[in-house]
Amino acid sequence: MIKLIECPRDAMQGIPHFIDTAIKAAYINQLLEVGFDTIDFGSFVSPKAIPQMRDTEEVLSLLDLHHSKSKLLAIVANRRGSEDACLFPEIDYLGFPLSVSETFQQRNTNKSIAEAFELVEEIQNLCEVKGKTLVTYLSMGFGNPYGDPYSPEMIAEFVEKLKELGIKIISLSDTIGVATPELITELFQVQTNSFPELEFGAHLHSTIDTISEKVAAAIKGGCNRFDGALKGFGGCPMAKNELVGNMATEVMIDTLEKSGYELGLNKRELNEAMKLTNFVFLES
């Protein structure tokens, strides 16, 4: 079964102007009608670090979850944010960005990789007590621009450590959009064959013309969980290419359906969400 995770949080957090709370909530409510497995809707991080997400709690209070099968995911970066997120029964998943690049881990969370692993263990223990599930993102999972060490073997070492901590969902993240289809297939094949009990996701960044081949490569490697954002909004500023954004969800859907996958989405509601996208990100 293919799981699609729609990521308005990732799409919104880099927008320079603040998107009104009511507009955020209306957009996410529309996404909740589509039938995505999960909505990555907000983050419990310092407003100084991510000012666009400073209203996550208020947005959550405005969401209509009664008729949606979608689960909610919130990103956290420290113990306090994790504790705050766990106060809300509506939230199913906490997501933590763990980097295989020492430089990026310091830039992203102001911690070393060793310190980040200690924090992952704390958050995982908290999730077990509070009935949440931790999703760990391995950022710079396909290479980094800093000259830090990288290899597919390193990824397997990180996965082994996370498995020992009880983590069950790991998303391999191509933070800067450098992954080739060959590397995508190889990396997922190694992980899915070595750790069949774990769930592996793909959080890839891409130009529009390479999305389909990257989805196909991940499927070939055994991945069945995909993060995306409608029309490809969002991405990493370190990509140094304004065309490299999140995987456009509508392109992924088209690719998967042409490959014979039944995704169970409400296309009418999806079309309504597509209509809202430009207004939310470009005109609001």
From TrEMBL:
Keywords, comma-separated and alphabetical: Lyase, Metal-binding
Pfam families in the record: HMGL-like (PF00682)
Coiled coil region boundaries: none
Keyword Protease carried by entry: no
Domain Pyruvate carboxyltransferase positions: 1-271
A Gene Ontology molecular function term of the record: lyase activity
Family designation: Belongs to the HMG-CoA lyase family.
Name assigned to this protein: Hydroxymethylglutaryl-CoA lyase
